[in-house]
Design brief:
Layout (H helix, E strand, L loop, with lengths): L8 H10 L4 E5 L3 H4 L2 H6 L4 E3 L4 H12 L4 E4 L3 H7 L1 H9 L5 E3 L20 H6 L5 E3 L4 H13 L4 E3 L23 E4 L4 E5 L3 H13 L5 E5 L2 E3 L3 H11 L1 E9 L4 H12 L3 E7 L8 H7 L4 H12 L2
Parallel strand pairs: 1-2, 1-3, 3-4, 4-6, 5-6, 8-9, 8-11, 11-12
Antiparallel strand pairs: 5-10, 7-9
């Protein structure tokens, strides 16, 4: 069943409490949307709502982290990463605090909310920060695993979640035990399609369509954008010789940039980056993905272009 990655946030926080982890959540008046309200309902002493004050949210979370708590922040991605970037940099990252920045509603699949609410720069903003780890899960179960990994690993994390229900890629028993995680979810030999988040399901569909044409596409889930799973990425690039990165984020500074930087240094090969190059607009999620060439058909078209077919 399709479920949004944001839907994993609140329930996973409850699981962590049951596992004995001293979790708290600080939200900026969006607990219903981010689902941290589930933690607030079950454990009101573990939840703080600061109102529409994202900078204060990071300050409060930092103070709680200094008392030994494992602290998660909510809000929408465009506000929870951008509006409070200086506080994340100067308070959380410089001091290497145990704060997990976990906003929801990232990317253009926020849809009708339009360009003001469609975070397309957040991965770039977070991956540039020392000490910050960046995870972009591709389905509900991956989001649950990412949140658990962040909770059990000391220091700052950014876990990017979305509003749109996504098809299941991983089973309920999926877990991640390393910060640097990438996974080959479909083997191929002609091109490596490296995707994250929303785009993984579309990349898998594109690979099916390409197979009907005789093109063998390998699909790699780049859940960890910082640090990168260099071994998996380099092995796939060496196998196919051609890489296409696909992300619901700006092509400037995002996952595609991270992969391109790695390959430029350690395995130069042909790389094409598919993503956003400007702001979004209002529309439903499917319409927007199709309009910007980020659905399966758009990925197939870019593969044809890259392979010269």
């Amino acid at each position: 069943m399709a479920k949004a990655t944001r839907a994993a946030f609140g329930p996973t926080l409850l699981e962590l409490v049951d596992e004995g982890i001293d979790v708290m959540a600080v939200d900026a008046d969006l607990a219903g949307s981010t689902t941290t309200a589930k933690l607030a309902a079950a454990h009101p002493d573990r939840f703080v709502d600061v109102g529409i004050a994202e900078q204060n949210m990071i300050g409060v979370a930092s103070g709680l982290a200094l008392t030994g708590r494992t602290v998660f922040t909510g809000s929408f991605a465009v506000f929870g990463s951008g509006r409070c970037w200086e506080q994340i940099r100067n308070t959380v990252c410089i001091s290497n605090l145990n704060v997990k920045v976990c906003p929801t509603h990232a990317g253009i699949t926020v849809g009708p909310d339009g360009e003001t609410h469609q975070a397309l720069e957040d991965i770039a903003l977070m991956r540039v920060l020392p000490h910050m780890r960046v995870l972009v899960p591709a389905d509900y179960n991956a989001a649950r695993a990412a949140i658990k990994l962040a909770a059990k690993t000391p220091g700052p994390f950014y876990v990017r979640m979305g509003r749109e229900p996504l098809p299941e890629v991983y089973g309920e028993d999926f877990s991640v035990d390393t910060e640097a995680f990438a996974n080959v979810v479909r083997e191929g030999s002609d091109i490596s399609i490296m995707a994250c988040g929303v785009e993984l399901a579309h990349a898998l569909k594109a690979a099916e369509l390409l197979a009907e044409e005789g093109i063998s596409a390998e699909v790699v889930d780049i859940m960890s954008i910082k640090p990168l799973d260099e071994e998996t990425i380099l092995a796939s690039a060496a196998k196919t010789g051609v890489v296409l990165t696909v992300e619901e984020h700006s092509v400037y500074g995002g996952m595609g940039s991270a992969v391109a930087e790695l390959l430029a240094e350690k395995h130069p090969c042909r790389v094409s980056r598919l993503g956003m190059t400007g702001f979004g607009q209002s529309g439903n999620a499917a319409e927007l993905l199709a309009h910007y060439g980020l659905d399966a058909a758009g990925i197939v078209a870019r593969v044809h272009e890259v392979l010269g077919k």
